[in-house]
Amino acid sequence: MCGWRSVYCTAMAEADVTINECVSIDDFKQCVELERAIYKDNDIGVMPIRLYMISKSCNAPTFGAFDKTGRMVGFVHTMIALLDGQVVYHSYSAAVLEELRHRGIGYRLKLAQRVYALEAGVPLIVWSFDPLISRNAHTNINKLGAIVRRYSVNHYGENISTVFETDLPTDRIFAEWWIESPHTLSALAGNRPQVDNPSATVAIPDDINAVRARSLEDHRHWRLRAREDLQRELGGGSIIRGFARDPEKGEGRYLFGPDEEQFHFSAYSSDL
Predict the structure, then answer these.
(1) What pLDDT does 177 receive?
(2) Has residue 160 got a pLDDT over 90?
(3) Is 33 part of any domain?
(4) Is residue 92 part of a domain?
(5) Of 55, 83, 84, 86, which is most buried, counting CB atoms within 10 Å of its CB?
(6) What does the pLDDT read at residue 148?
C-alpha cells in the first residue's frame, strides 16, 4: 500500500511493453505524434522527424516503448553533447502516455539508454529537470543514481511553450548520470543513496502541482526560495547526492554531500 498522499507510489503493475530502438521513419513519426499527444504543444515546439534521424546518424539513439499492438506509448530521445571537452549524451526528451505513467516505462527507457551509452563508450548522460518536482527528483537521484551540480535560472524562458508552466521562470537543475560509477551501480541494485551527515539540505514541496492549483504566488515563492537555496549550496562546491521525503511537513529534501572522483571524467577512459 502507498502511504501518506504519496506522489512516489509505484504499487501499480509494470506495464506490458517492449523497449526497442527507433530506427525507421515510421518509428519517428510515432515519436512526433506522441509529443503532440502528451505535450499538447504547437508544432513549433515539436521536434521534427529529420532531427530524430540526424541524431540516429550521429549514434545518439531514440528508444520507444511499444504495446502489444505496436503502438508507441513512451519514448526517450538522446542527443550528442560536449562537456568539458568530452563527448556525452544529453537525454533531451522523455515522455510516457499519462494513463501508463508510474508503471516503470520511463525507468526501463532510461536503462536502455544506459546500455547503449555503455556500448558506445560514453560515460555520462545528462538531462535537465524542474527542481520543484519531487517525483522526478526521487526517480533521477534515488532510483537511477544521478547527482546534481548545476543550476540554470529560467532555462527555457517564460511563456515560450505550453509544455512548461506559464507565468513562472523555468528554472532547471541538471542530472549527471555517471553510468559506470559505484554510486550509480549501487542505486540500480536497489540501494537508495545514503548521505550520512549531509552538509546541507534544501526543501521543496512534496507535490508542487497541488501547490500551483492552490496558488500561483505560492508556486512562485517556492521557485524563488529553492533557487536561492540550491544556488547557494551548489555554488559552495557540494553536490546533490540524495533525496528524502518528510511526510509530516509535506516536503522533500535534497541532500548535499562531497564531490568525488567517480563523478568526473578522470575516473574513466579518456579515449572517447
Answers:
(1) 98
(2) no
(3) no
(4) no
(5) 55
(6) 98
Question: Residue 228 belongs to what domain range?
Answer: 123-267
The full DSSP string for 235-269 is HTT-EEEEEEEETTTTEEEEEEE---GGGSGGGS-
Q: What are phi and psi of 117, to 5 degrees?
A: -65, -40
* DSSP 8-state assignment for residue 138: I
Tell me: the pLDDT tens digits for 68-117?
Answer: 999 999 999 999 999 999 999 999 988 999 999 889 999 999 999 999 99
Q: Which three cell numbers stand for residue 4?
A: 501518506
C-alpha cell at 136: 522526478
Q: How many CB atoms lie within 10 A of CB 115?
A: 13
Q: Is 239 inside any structural domain?
A: yes
Of 126, 178, 174, 124, residue with least CA distance to 153? 174
CA atoms of 74 and 110, how far apart (whole Å): 11
Distance from C-alpha of 111 to C-alpha of 118, rounded to nearest angstrom: 11
Whether 89 is covered by a domain: the verdict is: no
Exposed, middle or buried by CB within 10 Å (0-12, 13-18, 19+), for 6? middle
Q: Report how many domains make up the chain.
A: 1
**Phi, psi for residue 189 in degrees, rounded to 5:** -80, 0
Q: What is the mean pLDDT of residues 162-181?
A: 88
